[in-house]
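Key result, reporting period 2: structure in, sequence out.
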């Protein structure tokens, strides 16, 4: 499985924030979830990938070809951004005419099929669209020039569950085509738990981990028991400890050891959100030492 995008030693320094030595790869036929809290650096890195922000150091290889021209790179990347890039006073059709003129592989037939599928009216003014309809329109544009890499920055933020489910279905369809990949940046872990193949976790401008989603979920467990058991445990083995008068729960990657030592402990599958919070808690605690 080839890398469709390879990022090596990328850094970008601002007055109050820095991306530091970023090394990640996006594989073909893979949905890669880019997970981080707001302000962690997700959007900055995406803008560097898209050429909208200049990197200070490092290298990016697109589509396994270090000599690919900027125009060819642009043609092969589809983009859906949370903050949009539309002129609100234009109609959908007028905006489409502007966007389509910038691509060499624009597919009008495919665009029309998405417009019909999403029940969009091309005569409608963009400013009158709901957030969900704007996302569908942006997706229609992004998928209509035969892009091999779809980059999405917080596409489901503020959307209702029905629209989010529809988006997940489309991404699953898209990724079935040979050579297609998705980089899905979000802080909504439930979306990635449904569809992601790999997870990249970024925190405070640093990559904490890139790992298979299934491997990450298998690495941790949610444990529960009474507070007498909690008093006997090594707190260094536990993250996100939640203690009440009736007992406690915590996230741990030492669950096999703890289950042998304390058979009465209840061990359950941890959610991706719990694991993400536990992993970023580790880094923040280390930073504050």
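The corresponding designed sequence is given below.
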């Amino acid at each position: 499985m080839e890398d469709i995008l390879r990022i090596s030693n990328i850094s970008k320094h601002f007055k109050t924030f820095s991306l530091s030595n970023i090394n990640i790869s996006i594989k073909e036929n893979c949905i890669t979830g880019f997970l981080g809290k707001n302000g962690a650096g997700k959007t900055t890195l995406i803008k560097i990938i898209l050429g909208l922000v200049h990197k200070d150091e490092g290298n990016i290889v697109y589509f396994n070809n270090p000599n690919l021209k900027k125009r060819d790179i642009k043609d092969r990347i589809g983009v859906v951004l949370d903050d949009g890039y539309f002129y609100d006073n234009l109609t959908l059709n007028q905006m489409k005419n502007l966007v389509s003129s910038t691509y060499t592989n624009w597919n009008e037939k495919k665009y029309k099929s998405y417009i019909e599928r999403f029940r969009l009216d091309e005569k409608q003014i963009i400013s009158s669209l709901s957030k969900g309809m704007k996302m569908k329109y942006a997706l229609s544009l992004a998928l209509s020039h035969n892009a091999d890499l779809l980059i999405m920055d917080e596409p489901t933020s503020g959307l209702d569950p029905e629209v989010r489910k529809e988006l997940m279905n489309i991404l699953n369809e898209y990724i079935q085509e040979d050579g297609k990949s998705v980089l899905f940046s979000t802080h909504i872990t439930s979306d990635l738990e449904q569809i992601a193949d790999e997870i990249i976790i970024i925190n405070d401008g640093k990559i904490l981990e890139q790992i298979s989603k299934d491997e990450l979920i298998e690495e941790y467990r949610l444990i529960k028991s009474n507070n007498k058991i909690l008093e006997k445990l090594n707190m260094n083995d536990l993250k996100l400890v939640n203690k009440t008068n009736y007992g406690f729960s915590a996230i741990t990657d030492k669950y096999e050891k703890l289950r042998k030592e304390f058979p009465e402990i209840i061990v359950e599958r941890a959610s991706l959100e719990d694991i993400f919070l536990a992993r970023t808690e580790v880094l923040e605690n280390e930073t504050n030492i």
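The chain has two domains: 3-212, 217-288. Confidence is low (pLDDT under 50) at residues 282-289. This case is discussed further under Risks and Mitigation.
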